[in-house]
Specification:
Two copies of one chain form a homodimer.
Chain A: E1 2-6, H1 7-18, E2 32-38, E3 41-47, E4 51-58, E5 60-63, E6 66-70, H2 71-80, E7 85-91, E8 94-99, E9 102-107, E10 126-129, H3 130-141, E11 155-161, E12 164-170, E13 174-181, E14 189-193, H4 194-203, E15 209-214, E16 218-223, E17 226-231, E18 250-255, H5 256-268, E19 276-282, E20 287-294, E21 298-305, E22 307-309, E23 312-317, H6 318-327, E24 332-337, E25 344-348, E26 356-360
Antiparallel strand pairs in A: 1-5, 1-7, 2-3, 2-6, 3-4, 4-17, 7-8, 8-9, 10-15, 11-12, 11-14, 12-13, 13-26, 15-16, 16-17, 18-22, 18-24, 19-20, 19-23, 20-21, 24-25, 25-26
Chain lengths: 365, 365
Amino acid sequence: MKVQVTQENLARGLGIVGRVAGGRTSLPILTNVLISTDKNQLRLAATNLEIAITQLIGVKVETPGSITVPAKLISDFISSLPAGNISLEVEDSKLHIESDNYSSTINGVSAEEFPSIPTVESKEPLTIKTTNLKDTIQQTVVAASSDEARPVLTGAYLHSEDSKLYCAATDSYRLAERMVKNDFKKQVNMIIPARTLSEIQRIIDDQEELQLHYDESQIMVRSGDTELVSKLIDGKFPAYRQLIPAESEVTIKIAASELLSITKVAALFARESAGSITLEVDKDKQQVSIASVASQVGENTSTAQGKVQGSGKITLNSRFLIDALNVIHDDEVKLRFSSNSSPCILEPLGKEKGQYQHIIMPLRS
Amino acid sequence: MKVQVTQENLARGLGIVGRVAGGRTSLPILTNVLISTDKNQLRLAATNLEIAITQLIGVKVETPGSITVPAKLISDFISSLPAGNISLEVEDSKLHIESDNYSSTINGVSAEEFPSIPTVESKEPLTIKTTNLKDTIQQTVVAASSDEARPVLTGAYLHSEDSKLYCAATDSYRLAERMVKNDFKKQVNMIIPARTLSEIQRIIDDQEELQLHYDESQIMVRSGDTELVSKLIDGKFPAYRQLIPAESEVTIKIAASELLSITKVAALFARESAGSITLEVDKDKQQVSIASVASQVGENTSTAQGKVQGSGKITLNSRFLIDALNVIHDDEVKLRFSSNSSPCILEPLGKEKGQYQHIIMPLRS
């Protein structure tokens, strides 16, 4: 293989695919990036066997060929070089890299030993607006679990119901659900790993729409010259809908920023008690007050005004409430609950009204 | 104690003194900040028994008094509050904090149990230009040791010699020396902990000059309403001057940015060999080339043009060369050495010419 490429293109491409290479892996070749010519382009690819990313970049191919080299080393190296032309040449299992003042050899491994990169092409892919997809990912992934003991909870559940497309994630202590599409006729039902969604968010560029290709076990997304393929999570997502009460006895409508700021302050005093804070909604005073008590260090009460119906108390994990408020973009939110033994529901009241809900299970106070 | 204070002043003051509180300490009260009234001001103080910082802030004192409370909690708490007036009131060993929507109690410890904060007032303090002091600290502290086994090397040596004031630091593998004052008549000789110098750099504000008060065992610096007192390091600094050769056989004058960039690239290939890179200065080609070999991963050679006298090779720790180049502000530098068994000297060639030198001991290649 011999190609001419610009430092800018190669550095950008390696940056995109490099993130899935390496990490904790028992297969050393997965720390490498696959570099191969593809007609008059260069294909960069990396995989962790769950997610694979490939990136095509424009190059001048003098001799076709391929090799794999350590992803981190070549990525750090190429991004340290000044802008300009770079020549890449494979000889045996070595990659020679030449540019104006730099000459390097990186020891590689034959491309034949690299796992094959799968792809999926649906006849009828899902088309989603990019902004919508970005918001959906941001607003749901936060509630996904990181506990590998229950794999289905480490993903987000993309599914159709009542002619709508929803995305939901839960770690069993909290749940986030976002409506992705209205008036949706297809039948869709898949659990996408949260990590895959985060990587998809990273590769989305300025395009207006994105197409989601999928089959029984995989999804594929293409953005510009980048292609991401991921396994889906096998299993059945919990029937969460029945857990969300339609009505609640206590409701407060409040500025999201004020609720966030009093929650953050209360959280400082809740470090000893694993983040436990108690919200008291008071109809007479039309306010919510948040109390946290750290027996060792002291105690705090913070209050904010809102529009209140009903009075009551609920004890929540402050981190969950902060996480939820951080992903809601609307200025005003509604928080509702009935008692300390039923869920607390947080919803946006602006543009996103009716599209998103975030449910937090109470702590025993 | 009862005082009224603005959130802005209190948050700023706690931010300044808070950094020396806490850390690894066997004396729990050192994680606290001392809060006490001082006439019509509030004095905040923290100490780690090596460095103490006190900060005066303007307040409205209703009742004088004092208390100590956990520095991190009160600092995080006050900085989370919105701007505006805050009331602080001590009752028994509790500090009550009230502002518009927030009401907190922090459990404290009596101020009597707090170590006394020393001070030093010299009749003839050293006066140093702030910009000069900042550069001196930045350019010397980088070479100080972090190995507590040889305490004198964890500090910077401020000393007079030949009517000049110098500051020097070394970890025995490299040495940085900066001339602080010319035409200096006093006799000065002290070893200031590197950590103290970093803290001094942090508290210096926009004033033009700074006065260094000192006695046998302590120094004190005052900047605005902030006062820092630190112990000096007891011991004898190595007689380093004799180790710096006046002349070298090989010299290259080169753009600092180019030398830095080829060193950084070479360092990527030197991770396996503990950062070891070999510089080859070539008189015929008027260039320096840096080679690094990582037997496992590959090898690299980078070159840059310069004005060369003499030819030769030297093997250095790439991190030390990067550190040195990062603290030199001039565009052009001179690098000189005689062989791989004598020191390599790096000097700025612009405004800072003659004021700074950075010596790096070679590695056995």
